[in-house]
Fold these 4 entries.
Entry 1:
Amino acid sequence: MLLTPLLPQRWMAAAGAVALLAPLLAYHVRRAFAPMNALFRALAGSVASYRDGDFGFGLAWRGRGALAELVDAHNRLGDALREQRLALVQRELLLDTMVQNTPVAMVLVDPSRRIVLGNIAARKLLGEGHKLEGRDFDALVESAPDAVREAFDRGGDGMFTVGDADHEDIYHLARRQFRLNGRRHELILLRVLTAELRRQEVQTWKKVIRVISHELNNSLAPIASLAHSGSELLRRGQVEKLPTALATIEDRARHLEGFIRDYARFAKLPAPRREPVEWSRFVAQLREQVEFRNEGATDGIARVDLVQLEQSVINLLKNAHESGSPPGDVALAIRRLPDAWRLDILDRGTGMNEAVLSNALLPFYSTKRNGTGLGLALAREIAEAHGGRIALLNREGGGLCVSMVLPD
């Protein structure tokens, strides 16, 4: 009977002891788990740093077991990410160095027509050496020389000339569109071809000398041989064979005469004799000689050399027919500009690759087996003699546009 009152007292004593020992126990538990908690916080912090692109630190853990393996794996991951980041930075630095120092002017334009990137060559060409990033590209083109603005207005790839006769630079324009970060951007490349074309021009003239020498030899050698044979026939009294020999001599002489005349016409193009020409009359005369579709209005009068311009445009229209274009897609478009006339000869043929575009206007350059290489070069000479210019560019959807601008 005496044990019953003692039970509550024992329970109270035990509860008091637990109450006294609990803080101490909690303190030791927290102290025992503190390193692991710190490790977990460090792991969380390092993951957040990796997400932000910071890989410049590692973790240390003196313990063993699964946590040690976790820390080692985490550190190896950090090392790999750090090495990849360093390699990426080096590649970006190399790429930026190449982009900035290339002689090709490069401009990257975003969908709002703002310049995202412009290298050093682009700054010199379009921005007078000033930074281009953030500027409105269309406004920049509007303030550029007329030839640059017209090249961009035509769209697509093409060539244009900046400067005067004493100092001119020839450029090739290339435009490419692509998606960057889900948005459509445009990359514009402007490459100076002046020095390259000058070197090619020297090589072309060497080729011309070889071609002329070859043609002269091909004609003069048989003429000399036949003349000798004719004299021998005459000496022997075999005059019945003389007409054949003389006819062959005449044929070769006339061929040589025509060959020299064609080249002389290009080399000695006379100054244009300007006269008022109605475009409607000009188009009507062209239709009598070559098939084409007319686009745009033919009203108006221009002051041009009718013979020279007609010869040039006929050659261009014939080239368009020989490009593989359907005859119905060969067109001539005449448009009025503020202070000039613009003639576009259009086709839907195979167009030209970059190498041909770069050389097509050079004298004697031809991709045809029997071509003289004078058609486009003569058209350029005629346009420039009128104070104008000519440009070639591939059309969207295939084909070529030869654009000739003739000032008033």
Entry 2:
Amino acid sequence: MDPIRNPYAPGAGQRPPELAGRDRELQQFEVTLERVAAGRPERSMVLSGLRGVGKTVLLNALRGQAVRRAWGTGKIEARPDQSVRIPVAQAVHAAVREVAHRHRDPDRVDEVAGVLKSFALTTTLDDRRAAARAGRRWTPPVDVTAAKGRADSGDLELDLVELFTDVATLAGDLGVGVALFVDEMQDAATAELAALCGACHEISQQGAPLIVVGAGLPHLPVALAASKSYAERLFRYVSVDRLPREMADRAWTVPAGSEGVEFEQEALDELYRLTDGYPYFVQAYGKVTWDAAVGSPVRAADVHAAAPDAEAELAVGFFGARYERATPAERDYMSAMADLGAEHGDAAVATSDIARHLGRKPQSLSPARDGLIKKGLVYAAERGSVAFTVPHFGRFLRSR
């Protein structure tokens, strides 16, 4: 079939043509936006799940909902080697811009911009250097004088509370709110997670129209709870998982139907067997199957013909790139996880079992384990066990 008309979109954070299986989350967020704008109490939100399940896609879709309701929005991606202060300042600046042009009091807008500039300027030299290395400007482009005595204490939690309060008030004047979206939230330092939680808690108690929506790996809820004991009650936690069969079929058939193409049932059966409903795999296999198919309807034989191409592409771009980031010791650790997980569908593996498998003492493997966690390749599923952050990664390692 014509590859130019191929409707599937495998890509990091790239929205698929049919966002299947996320209707409930989208509907709930509409309610959240309405309640917050009306001054009613509502919790911020945290999305968590494995890589490739569509967390970033959903995060962007939620932001789109806020934009359509004329909210001020901004988005950051947390990084393990960088403070969140400068990224937050830039994201909040974007949100202020989105509401400022509709505000009737330019002096009030300038006051808030001054507080924002003050918040951004309160950075350490290390923060500035890290921002420069990441290609970020360390001061927001606002042509106002920095406010004094507001959001400039150096205490991140206190400064966030003051910044969020002023920005939320600005948006509230227009009957809307502000939403800050934080991707890869688990990569923020524990102290900064605590500061974000503390600021969200205070803003929520004030009833101010500002919410934070975070997204991260499965251990993000645990990391938040470790930073602040009340975090488990502060957010509404949403587990983003693979698609059930009906939704996976919809992700294949609806885009194809818009191009006048149908699928045989056997083809859909085989696609689901290969992908397990993981959204990234759904798009990847859908794309190569379209290109391999002779015409409509798409047959199981087309899926079989295309599968090696999908596997090869995933082996390089999705799995291989992550594997290459690991040191030899970390690769040995992951190989042991894959071997032990073969009989249990790559579920969590006890760290003590990994040590026995490698003939090593558990303490000697801590550097490899910690390195893999920092690189986002594994996560602590529960105390004393680890699991891959990437679906089918164990299968990939066993095939090498």
Entry 3:
Amino acid sequence: MGYGGYMTLLNGSPYDWTLSSQHAYQMDSWNWPTVAAGTAAKVYVEYGTKGHTSDDAGEAYYKISSTSNTFSIQAKKPSDYHLYIALDGMSTKTNPKGSVIDQGFRHDASVNWILSTDEAGQFWSNGGTTVDWMQQSLGSLGNRTLKQICMPGSHDAGMSSYNPGTVGANFANTQAQYLDFYQQLMMGSRYFDLRPVLSNGQWVSGHYSEIEGVWLGGNGQSIADIIKQVNQFTSQYRELIIINLSHTLDTDNDYKDLTQAQWNSLFSTLRGLNFRMENANPGNTDFSNKVLNEFIQDKASVFILAQLPGGIALGDYANQGFFNQDNLPMYDSYSETNNRGKMEDDQIKKLKDNRNLVSDAGARKDKFHIFSWTLTQQAEDVLNLDKAIMNLGVSVYDDLFSKAYNAFTPESFPNVIYVDALGIRDKPVLFPYDKPAKVASSAEIAALAMAVNNGKAGRNGYITGR
């Protein structure tokens, strides 16, 4: 057998990608399909075993129907087995005409070519980095409500490091993110699950679970460090950042819920975040009904949402850039399984059942939707370092760009693509398991969100007004 892997062709444009021609030399598998508008095709590629692999090569030529735009896929350097996209007859937001984009190659895994078209006809791709993707997309997204926009999100966002915690906890069963807060922002994440806890009198990120009456977990980034990193990002980019506060605990006092005074202390600390979205007397206003231009037209905006338990109130902090769960109602239901197929089918079904963005108000289902593409460790996984949270996260990475994207429709797509190990596609926890390995990062998930906004939501007349 040869050396094989996949390329996913994600067509987020309103035009079919028509295969014009293809040919190969000594490739065991090189068979490319036409890709319909708004769909993704995962294609297997295998270098040959006959003769010398230095001679292996292949080309596939595509025309974007109803336009003059063309591109090609090339396998031309078998010594590194990389696949390339050549923009023979087109340009994108980040790549001039004639660019050759190295997509790399992943043995038995996928590389992705993501190309979408916004309302102005501009092509966007993952062939470059667009850090401020929201700001640059305001022409299409500015008049859409938050309910009508898709963005990447970080589960347990503060757990990008591990500080030893309880007995039985380790980095494999506690650390959920490889990249720190600033790096997650740079990779395109805009929704952050932040779980502040008090530990040794300090506010830090925590990841704790109670199992049969015993608490298990540890700490990640400090809240002070997170504030510094968010402020660094908002000083550079005018993006919307949603920070959702939940799972708060006093780990210094038997893991009790926070008191009102402790919540006030947390709010006071978080006032260090610049560009908080302040709204006098927000009451029960649903901010998911507000359009993106109301948040970031001329500045960054940090929307701090607190999931408050009974008996706890925002008080005057409601006038200082803090909101409660009534201000951003959401559908958030994770699958609680370590089984890849069960999680994926469950999340896709929940999306289908709970999202229907149509003009008929009686049939409309548009609650802000968290698409939890996460696997949950079970009891048998907790001490299995190979099944680290981050490893489970990357095990379902490729399916986002094929299975999940194909399940999305113009009327039913998520608001948050919510993942562990955001920006990471290869296992970072490897033998000898002393610490995460060095792995490359990728902003592809931002390109995926843009493809949802362009190729799915952008084809919904109720959303676009067309």
Entry 4:
Amino acid sequence: MTIVDQSDASPYVPGRSVGGPSLPQRRRLVTEVPGPRSRELLERKSGAVARGVGITLPVFTDVAGGGVLVDVDGNSFIDFGTGIAVTGVGNAAPRVVEAVQDQVARFTHTCFMITGYDSYVEVAEALNRLTPGDHDKRSALFNTGAEAVENAVKIARSYTGRQAVIAFDHAYHGRTNLTMALTAKAMPYKSGFGPFAPEIYRAPLSYPYRDGLSGPDAAREAIAMIEKQVGASSVAAIMIEPIQGEGGFIVPAPGFLTALSAWAAENGVVFIADEVQTGFARTGRFFASEHEGLVPDLIVTAKGIAGGLPLSAVTGRAEIMDAPHVGGLGGTYGGNPLACAAALAAIESYENDGLLERAAAIETVMKSRLLELQAGDPRIGDVRGRGAMIAMELVDPLTGEPDPALTGRIAKHCHENGVILLTCGTFGNVIRFLPPLAIDDELLHEGLDVLAQALEAA
């Protein structure tokens, strides 16, 4: 680890600083990583928190904002993770903070199913307006992405009267029982937790780097499997991420998603886009479906929707969304007033602060640097993604096989040197970049400089 001594850095006192843009936007390491206070908290965690709850980077956060996160030892990290694509507007974004402070002073909870409140309706109206398509829509709000995915399946089954759901290779849809069944990766998400929900079937995904197929050809393979092994008349829904998240930031070849959507429409199958990770300006559009002109029947959102507060939603065609009986959808905390206030503030930022354009600018910076690295390093097999959702896949240059060990070493080097980044992929060999849209170019370049050093060191 390199201690980054920045004598011009504003003094930072753990516990006293505030987040948002007032936080100095710089990488600054004043201790080893993890530092002494984080190590103390790690010890306490081991005695208090279930072992199954892991921590990727062994530090504890004190304050965060803009493009940085500061730990309890005063180390300032460049944030290329945003809590897994959650704080797109930046951590402690002023609009979000102000909205939540105002709401928490008014009331914290009533349960929308008991007495309503206007912010729930306003969030639903915003989602109906922003999601692809100009058809009549309805929305329902929940807490987590997995919860919204489960409810999307409930809604599709209620509407079609069918049971089967098609998921895809490399998919990730959550950690609950049904969403584990939809998720493809065994470790750490599924191993030892079965049996899983029935009537889930898996089809091949378009993976251009690995399969070399055009989008229409890959779709034909997937559709043939569905028709032969399940039967169109049994399928309630197709569930797919427009860009794979945990599965490796896989961008399907052009035409794959639209071919599946067309087949679904022809066969009375509900097409569900899981935009939990790709939604809310992450890919340079409000929703990744827009890149291919895709209009899903249902769209599932979460993560970036509320600037860090727990909120998710299912939005879709009115006739499908209204299929379940009254009382069939809901939950005690679903669409809680604090999260709704945060969502309205975050949506205002996405619409008015140039964040869609900022995501596109981040893509230009990151892809340019990563492709430059790839040109001189055959271990970088692929660079892909859209907007501020970019990845590089690391391989053995002789065989093209995934290299998870190299990926782990690079991530560890970056963590120790002040850059938070995440790995992903079915084979654990993909590094994903999810910077906040509030990050500045200087931090982007510095974080990528550390990555280049990590590649050299590895």
